[in-house]
Design a protein that fits this description.
With 191 residues, the chain is mostly helical. It has helices at 5-17, 22-25, 55-64, 81-87, 89-97, 101-128, 141-145, 149-159, 166-176; strands spanning 35-37, 42-44, 130-132, 136-138.
Amino acid sequence: TGHHAQDAGEGALIQMMRGSSSLGMSSLARPTAPIPVPGLGASITLARPLARSWPHEIFEHAAARALSWHEDPTNAASTYTRNALRHGVLGELLAIQGSPGSALRTLEHLAGEADAITRQAAAFASAHVTTRGDIERSFPAAASASLPDAVFARLLITTLGVARDAAEVDAVRDVVRGEAAHALLSRARAR
């Protein structure tokens, strides 16, 4: 596809505004899985060769080689969310910073890191968490002791839904490390 670096940043901003998970916010940064093509008995994998290029770089490359391109006229219409961001928020970033590139890349990288943390927490839960009844969940303390803090927090808050905030995560972490005998959690959410 012709998606470029600015598309990825704009997409991440739009997904953030919608309350998407990190998975949605980093969707253009990740390679796609093969997509089956009905009737052909084959699959395709989307490639994004321009994903690390910025629009001005693409235009400069095309102009230097006398290549022509088509600009979609709807790109100028601020009635679409993406265009409103492009001409509004990103225009402001451009005026302040000279380029929205570093801010968009940072957002995209943070979303990718959060996505990786979520996958690690889910993998740990799949391998180690035992569920009894509707809400009771357990996992071996030794196995979780070496988890990075961000993965441990995601495991408790998002994946298992047994901790509500950082204070509760810290309380459980203290039990796992043997620094406390028990952790008092205000509420557990069934998943």
